[in-house]
Amino acid sequence: MMAQVVEQERLTRDVFRLWIEMEHDAPWSPGQFFHVRVGEGLDHVLRRPISLSEAVSDRRFALVYRVMGAGTRWLAGRRPGSALDVLGPLGRGFPLHPGDERVLVIGGGVGVPPLIQLAREVRRRGVEVAAVIGFREARDVMLVDELATLGPVHLLTEDGSAGMPGRVTDALGEDFLRGADRFYACGPSPMLQAVQGKLSGHLPGYLSLEERMGCGIGVCMGCVHPIRGGDGSPVYRRVCADGPVFPAEEVAFS
Amino acid sequence: MMAQVVEQERLTRDVFRLWIEMEHDAPWSPGQFFHVRVGEGLDHVLRRPISLSEAVSDRRFALVYRVMGAGTRWLAGRRPGSALDVLGPLGRGFPLHPGDERVLVIGGGVGVPPLIQLAREVRRRGVEVAAVIGFREARDVMLVDELATLGPVHLLTEDGSAGMPGRVTDALGEDFLRGADRFYACGPSPMLQAVQGKLSGHLPGYLSLEERMGCGIGVCMGCVHPIRGGDGSPVYRRVCADGPVFPAEEVAFS
Amino acid sequence: MMDVDLSVELAGIRLHNPVMPASGCFSYGREMSRWYDLSRLGAIVVKGTTLELRPGNPTPRVAETPSGMLNAIGLQNPGVDRVIAEELPALRQYGVPVIVNVAGSVVEEYVETARRLSGSRDVAALELNISCPNVRCGGMHFGTDPDMAAEVTAAVKAVSRVPVFVKLSPNVTDIVALAQAVERAGADGLSMINTLVGMRIDIERRRPILANFFGGLSGPAIKPVALRMIYEVSRVVRIPIIGMGGITSGEDAVEFFMAGASAVAVGTANFIKPTACVDILDELAAWCRNHGVRAVRELIGAAQKGWNQ
Amino acid sequence: MMDVDLSVELAGIRLHNPVMPASGCFSYGREMSRWYDLSRLGAIVVKGTTLELRPGNPTPRVAETPSGMLNAIGLQNPGVDRVIAEELPALRQYGVPVIVNVAGSVVEEYVETARRLSGSRDVAALELNISCPNVRCGGMHFGTDPDMAAEVTAAVKAVSRVPVFVKLSPNVTDIVALAQAVERAGADGLSMINTLVGMRIDIERRRPILANFFGGLSGPAIKPVALRMIYEVSRVVRIPIIGMGGITSGEDAVEFFMAGASAVAVGTANFIKPTACVDILDELAAWCRNHGVRAVRELIGAAQKGWNQ
Ligand SMILES: Cc1cc2nc3c(=O)[nH]c(=O)nc-3n(C[C@H](O)[C@H](O)[C@H](O)COP(=O)(O)OP(=O)(O)OC[C@H]3O[C@@H](n4cnc5c(N)ncnc54)[C@H](O)[C@@H]3O)c2cc1C
Ligand SMILES: Cc1cc2nc3c(=O)[nH]c(=O)nc-3n(C[C@H](O)[C@H](O)[C@H](O)COP(=O)(O)OP(=O)(O)OC[C@H]3O[C@@H](n4cnc5c(N)ncnc54)[C@H](O)[C@@H]3O)c2cc1C
Ligand SMILES: Cc1cc2nc3c(=O)[nH]c(=O)nc-3n(C[C@H](O)[C@H](O)[C@H](O)COP(=O)(O)O)c2cc1C
Ligand SMILES: Cc1cc2nc3c(=O)[nH]c(=O)nc-3n(C[C@H](O)[C@H](O)[C@H](O)COP(=O)(O)O)c2cc1C
Ligand code: FES
Ligand code: FES
């Protein structure tokens, strides 16, 4: 599917927010992702998965990405007006639960962007949102304003150069959890594992996982993660099609 | 070496003239070529050889090319202001002979462009130039005006839809050759072979050859053509470094 | 507009066109049916299926390479009985032949899987993936030894009621010897090529990217190797070849036909674009029309006559 | 700015840095010296040289493939005596070791060529290209049979006064067996990999693009195959490996070191950019600096320890 680049904003030294406009309306939910074709010609045969960060209509979306390698570097070079080949939104996003009154969104690094639209959807339903977000250092901090309009934001950096020193789990004390109905977390694997360790048994929630992907549409079995089934034993399920969001208690880490 | 695209003109439905400006002055002579990097990333590891067609200074050159495959298609998409990675001018161009009074330039299809600057250099030395140029059909005809300012132009098309019907060799009658000191020919191999057949023994001249190239700078031995040495037996010589222009009588066709 | 006859015959199976997905790049079809009408395919080739459920390898399972990719999925599949019961019936509605890719670690496993599959009315043909390591022979691959390849082929042929294609591994010194061995053993056709063994290293972490260290290289990068092997093999065997390895366009498909393939399969290109198979089919038909080719069959082996002739 | 020690030792030869051109992509150096100062190279590896002059193959000799190229040059070279007399002396001025790639069709030809070369003061080492077809064995390649590979290695070792590297062909089922055979036969080092055999078809003309039909596939496309083979081989041999196959950047070079190479050679990338070798060297040094690597030697085999460790 072809989309058009509407805007390219730099958020930090290596993170960009790309606004795209799809040709047609597309159903979406927070936590889904786009599978983005990068480069020209046949050099790059794999698309890059980037989460939906914001949706201002059913066809205008923001993708926030960190420049990591060749593909995201190429992406950062796209200018407004140029065409972008994207599949999506794909996967299963964050399920919202009627009856929730207060939820926590927990994000680390480029795991923060998908929480923006999630927090908006939650607020729209009148649910309170508190955000706990962590970055490496002050110059990596982003999207605080976007979250601050929706509820309290607890900012941490590993070196303490902005917000509180520490990692997101350091903010998840018992006091803080009191009154929360659910959490939603997105970030690097070690963070998700720590969050799971801290919150399991205390608060139900969801983790949005990352795995290297082939197809992005569920046919190659490239992106699997061990997920506990009904009998508690982990089976490989597809992050792209069965996820990327899974109930936190079902996610197994090796 | 990086050059900048200055202008991209469409000459026929599938032929374009690309004006480039080099970063630094570069020595050049008509008949030399540029080895042009195409595409982004690593998809295309081979450069494309395109002849110098015009030089308006020691750093501003025109390249005229037909869109054949992926590389030239990419080239046709370059817009003014974009950077182009070119090596060159490379190879040995058309030698000019002091004392010549009248020369013929003979070109077919995209073999015509390199003759423009050659004809200009020749005229600048006060030598008369007559051009014989052939194309498939009327819609392929190009560069007649450029040549017409320098001397008489004999235009042929295979189907007779413009100029005289026939091929360039049909124009090379005895009357026509009278008074000529030398010829310079550029075009597809079968044309060069026919020109050689017609003119050898009558008129000395040069052929500009085409072969698929690897390096373009003489190190890979990819682009060789059989050239008769001192003893008359053909040896493979490099079109990129020893040519592309060779004395007509030395070129062997298999 | 000229009508191009796209049909081909493969070991007695008539395909209304010669384009199919390559095994492992299409799962069992369910997800792909959201992207286009699967009845447009010449055939459907499903994921490598084993006797028992296989969980597959740990992740990362995929890595990108220049114009290609590595995969080490490790044959994750629910096992042959669930495939027959739960996956294949859903493909009936498309009315195209279904080819099931069969894998195993010992001959008996291939045989039993093949026996069960060939008993299903939903299976039109089998494709033996002999690139898997043979656990009995210390992990040596069936696909690299002509005798072992012939043995497994003959054993499967003995129980199969449907045609058997053997999928050759390119990681061999002499692909022709392998092809001839399985032809003699009764193979009804060949699929070539499977992936080349490769690896990538994550230089930041100083370890292989794939958890399995090595993986199978596929995509445009391997196209020249596939064409060469098909060209060599099609000269000497009489059974048809399903060609694959880096096909991403109609012109690529034409190249494979001219090299000697009778049909083509599309793998990695599905990841570039979910509609790759049908797009390639459309481009192939258009190419034939523009080149006055009335039947795609005419292209098979067209470049065999070679150069300067 | 940290000073990175780029030197490596290869079979007793000390290189001031580990980057050299790959044979056949540098001719005998004369043309390249117009693009940069050749003394910046770790070593110079020249074109495949045979006993007698070889005219090479008819054209087209090269074709492009996705992220790669095919070549069928056919070893065009002026013969060993003219190489010694006319080409090598010009390389003295650069003060870097010169490695001459040696090819032949029968063992005696390798031996005689090697004998003459090793008698030249301009030659620091030989690199045996055993991918050429052996005319005695019906065109079978020396490089695909461990016994033949060992035989030619031992025979050349017996006459050579300089270290002998054996350049392995990747077109084999078992690269490790080949490597071990030549190591046992006395090879001082290995070069890997040579090109994969491939082809392209000109679909307009319905014939192979290359006049020779088949050619050698090189460039980024083959990098994963090269890395895998080097990784497998370096685990089991004690002799150093010159790694090559698709290196186009300093990071690629790092990948090769981590896979187990002790030095790297750059082939096809020279066609992308004439200054490829020195650009890659600069990028390698910068990478080491940015990663606190004091000596490039530390990287050799760094990914051998593997995953999850
Ligand atoms: C479901 C999902 C959502 C994601 N959302 C975001 C997001 O919103 N913002 C963001 O910055 N990043 C996100 N990522 C990570 C992002 O996909 C990678 O950073 C990106 O693919 C790197 O591509 P590259 O070409 O720059 O790097 P390269 O290293 O050149 O990529 C090479 C290959 O490895 C894959 N790869 C490398 N790193 C990762 C990684 N961490 N995760 C998955 N694949 C990887 C690439 O996709 C590609 O196939 C997401 C990943 C997943 C799985
Ligand atoms: C010395 C020289 C000068 C040339 N000057 C011109 C010129 O001024 N104008 C012009 O239109 N064309 C010229 N050509 C031909 C031009 O190089 C090819 O048309 C072009 O390389 C095709 O590239 P492509 O990517 O579009 O085609 P593709 O077919 O995709 O190219 C694939 C590969 O084949 C090579 N190739 C394909 N056709 C040719 C060919 N006819 N000659 C050489 N290599 C080929 C390409 O360089 C590339 O390596 C010249 C060729 C040579 C050797
Ligand atoms: C992710 C993935 C999974 C694959 N799984 C199988 C498989 O189960 N059985 C099999 O025979 N081949 C499998 N293959 C190989 C393909 O069927 C095909 O032979 C190969 O990828 C070359 O074609 P391509 O370059 O078009 O992908 C797989 C390839 C990929 C990329
Ligand atoms: C044009 C060309 C000529 C080559 N000639 C030789 C040769 O004479 N001897 C040899 O051993 N290898 C030769 N090779 C192989 C290279 O040395 C190298 O092993 C191979 O190309 C892989 O490296 P690359 O991908 O960096 O090119 C040649 C390769 C190319 C592209
Ligand atoms: S990426 Fe292919 S199944 Fe998920
Ligand atoms: S193109 Fe390499 S020698 Fe001419």
Word description of this protein:
The complex is a heterotetramer, with two copies of chain A (254 residues) and two copies of chain C (309 residues). By secondary structure, chain A is α/β, with parallel strands linked by helices. In chain A, 15% of the residues lie in helices and 35% in strands. Chain A contains five helices and 15 strands. Chain A starts with a strand and ends in a 7-residue tail after the last strand. Chain C has a single domain (8-299), classed as Alpha-Beta Barrel (TIM Barrel), CATH 3.20.20. Chain C has an eight-stranded parallel β-sheet with strand order 3-16-15-10-9-8-7-4. Chain C has a four-stranded antiparallel β-sheet with strand order 5-6-14-11, with no helix packed on it. The longest helix of chain C is centred in the last third of the chain and has 15 residues, at 276-290. At the C-D interface, strand 11, strand 12, strand 13, helix 5 and helix 6 of C face strand 11, strand 12, strand 13, helix 5 and helix 6 of D. The complex binds flavin-adenine dinucleotide (2 copies), flavin mononucleotide (FMN) (2 copies) and FE2/S2 (inorganic) cluster (2 copies). One flavin-adenine dinucleotide binds at residues 33, 46, 48-51, 64-66, 68-72, 110, 113, 210-213, 244 of chain B. The site of one FE2/S2 (inorganic) cluster has 13 residues of chain B, from loops. Chains A, B: Belongs to the PyrK family. Chains A, B: One of its GO terms (molecular function) is electron transfer activity.
